[in-house]
């Protein structure tokens, strides 16, 4: 059986790897030596001499040192390996396509990374103990072979049969663990809904009871059944292991004298050794289920990493401000559709064909679900089109230039997120931010000090204003606002349409706005109306520029 946990633990120990292996072996050997000395001395009290006392002390000292060294360095190795794995996963995550991230899901990523890492970390100590115990067992069996080959053969046969049957039992346990994991996944999905919909649950007792009884209780009951079944198997397997050990004892005590001509003193020694190693065998039997869980946890992390590798964007050229001075952005027969898990196309947009200029305001309008946000995600390079192209100054934007292309945009989508710090904005002048807070009338709620907003516990409308401020601070050539005015009071809405947007236009920015405010449609230079993913109206400059 290949234990993946071992290679994972050693993957980050570098030059200490050989030392850890050596000290683990020495800890096992010195443990065995202690047993030998005790055995020798208890057989013959003349053996109580300075040499044996010193040897005993030396073995204990070496054991303590080796055990501490191997355990400490293995633990720090695995901690390092886990931290590196976290960084690798986050790095791969940020390079994967948005559409794949949306499919994998936030909760699945969080639980995968946190739960599995915890299991791996906790199992490492057990694994080190088990490896030390295995060395001690090998040492002890070597000594048994030295005392009596027949006793050694008996150990090999009985333990061999035990291992085969034990491994067979493990297969069922692994299957049950997998089923349990799937149930656990369902539980976390429900938990995700429960936490996201906490307000809706709080307000509606019937809904709250329904989700509690029919979702959580049922899921937990199903999980418990599997957990009980697997625990039952684990316990049976452990008891079986212990029984095999008793069988070994019985073989040594009752059978060995019949088949081998062993003296009673040797019999005593062999019995003492077998009793001595019972602790190590017990430890091994108890560790195996945990090590299997750790291997499954590693598989889960590898599975997540493989998914992220598959969803990786094509390699990007180094950012070169390729499009910095662009003038026009156009869609050339762009088509995009969402596909379900079976690969069938669901909702789609396109084909779309229009051109937008810098220094102009474009409104994208249409009913709910008409495809406005999907269009924006394509336009900004968050999704890559299934067919057709995005062009900048009439040149196709290759996917390898998407990083460069996306750097043109500041976006505030409907599900925007406010970061506690303004990442990526270096050398920001606090005064400049505070002036904007004043201009957008949120300065009485929050200030910008030492690179952070002092308060982000704000109303939805206020949070949107902060998101708007961040977008303005980024000072990108294209700004994209998805229903930003939706939660604003009439005065601010007026300010947004009649001041903020025209100011951005004056600053030669391309302004893309999703809006349902038909009272302000006259602000737009171009108006694109969507229905069922198709352009049903294209008015203004965008139409004139259409080639
Ligand atoms: N990740 C997704 N997977 C599958 N279908 C999706 C996904 N996101 C959106 N859709 C579907 O695409 C359609 C268009 O959604 P989109 O968010 O683009 O509409 P919208 O015009 O922005 O709507 P609204 O005005 O309500 O925000 C919807 O029918 C929606 O069900």
From TrEMBL:
Molecular function GO labels: ABC-type transporter activity; ATP binding; ATP hydrolysis activity; peptide transmembrane transporter activity
Gene Ontology biological-process entries: peptide transport
Gene Ontology CC annotations of this record: ATP-binding cassette (ABC) transporter complex
Range of residues in the leader sequence: none
ABC transmembrane type-1 domain mapped to chain residues: 21-293
Entry keywords, A to Z: ATP-binding, Membrane, Nucleotide-binding, Transmembrane, Transmembrane helix, Transport
Keyword set includes Nucleotide-binding: yes
Name this polypeptide is given: Cyclic peptide export ABC transporter
Organism: Pseudoalteromonas citrea
């Amino acid at each position: 059986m290949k234990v993946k946990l071992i290679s994972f633990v050693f993957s980050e120990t570098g030059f200490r790897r050989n030392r850890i292996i050596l000290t683990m072996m020495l800890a096992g050997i010195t443990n065995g030596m202690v047993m030998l000395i005790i055995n020798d001395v208890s057989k013959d009290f003349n053996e109580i001499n300075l040499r044996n006392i010193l040897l005993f002390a030396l073995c204990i000292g070496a054991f303590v040192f080796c055990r501490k060294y191997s355990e400490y360095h293995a633990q720090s190795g695995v901690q390092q390996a886990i931290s590196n794995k976290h960084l690798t996963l986050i790095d791969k995550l940020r390079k994967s396509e948005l559409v794949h991230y949306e499919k994998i899901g936030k909760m699945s990523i969080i639980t995968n990374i946190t739960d599995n890492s915890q299991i791996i970390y906790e199992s490492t100590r057990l694994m080190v103990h088990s490896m030390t115990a295995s060395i001690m067992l090998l040492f002890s069996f070597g000594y048994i072979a030295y005392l009596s080959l027949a006793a050694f053969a008996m150990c090999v046969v009985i333990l061999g049969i035990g291992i085969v049957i034990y491994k067979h039992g493990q297969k069922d346990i692994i299957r049950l663990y997998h089923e349990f994991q799937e149930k656990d996944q369902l539980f976390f999905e429900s938990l995700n809904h429960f936490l996201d919909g906490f307000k809706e649950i709080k307000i509606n007792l019937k809904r709250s009871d329904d989700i509690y009884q029919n979702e959580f209780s049922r899921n937990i009951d199903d999980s418990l059944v599997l957990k009980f079944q697997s625990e039952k198997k684990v316990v049976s397997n452990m008891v079986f292991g212990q029984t095999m050990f008793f069988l070994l004892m019985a073989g040594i005590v009752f059978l060995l004298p019949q088949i081998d001509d062993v003296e009673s003193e040797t019999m005593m020694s062999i019995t003492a050794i077998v009793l001595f190693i019972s602790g190590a065998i017990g430890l091994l039997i108890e560790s195996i289920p945990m090590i299997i869980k750790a291997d499954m946890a590693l598989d889960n992390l590898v599975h997540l990493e493989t998914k992220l590798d598959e969803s990786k964007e094509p390699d990007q050229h180094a950012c070169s401000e390729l499009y910095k001075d662009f003038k026009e952005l156009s869609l050339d027969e762009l088509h995009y559709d969402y596909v379900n898990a079976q690969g069938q196309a669901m909702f789609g947009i396109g084909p779309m064909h229009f051109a937008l200029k810098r220094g102009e305001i474009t409104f994208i309008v249409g009913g709910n679900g008409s495809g406005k946000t999907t269009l924006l995600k394509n336009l900004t390079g968050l999704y890559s089109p299934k067919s057709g192209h995005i062009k900048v100054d009439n040149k196709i934007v290759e996917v390898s230039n998407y990083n460069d292309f996306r750097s043109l945009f500041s976006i505030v989508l409907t599900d925007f997120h406010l970061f506690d710090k303004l990442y990526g904005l270096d050398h920001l002048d606090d005064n400049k931010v505070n002036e904007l807070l004043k201009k957008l009338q949120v300065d009485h709620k929050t200030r910008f000090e030492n690179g952070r907003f002092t308060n982000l516990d704000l109303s939805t409308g206020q949070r949107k204003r902060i998101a708007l401020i961040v977008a303005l601070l980024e000072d990108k050539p294209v700004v994209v606002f998805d229903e930003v005015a939706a939660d604003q009071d009439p005065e601010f809405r007026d300010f947004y349409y009649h001041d903020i947007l025209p100011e951005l236009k004056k600053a030669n920015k391309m302004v893309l706005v999703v809006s349902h405010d038909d009272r302000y449609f006259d602000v737009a230079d171009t108006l694109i109306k969507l229905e069922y993913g198709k352009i049903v109206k294209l008015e203004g400059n965008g139409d004139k520029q259409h080639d």
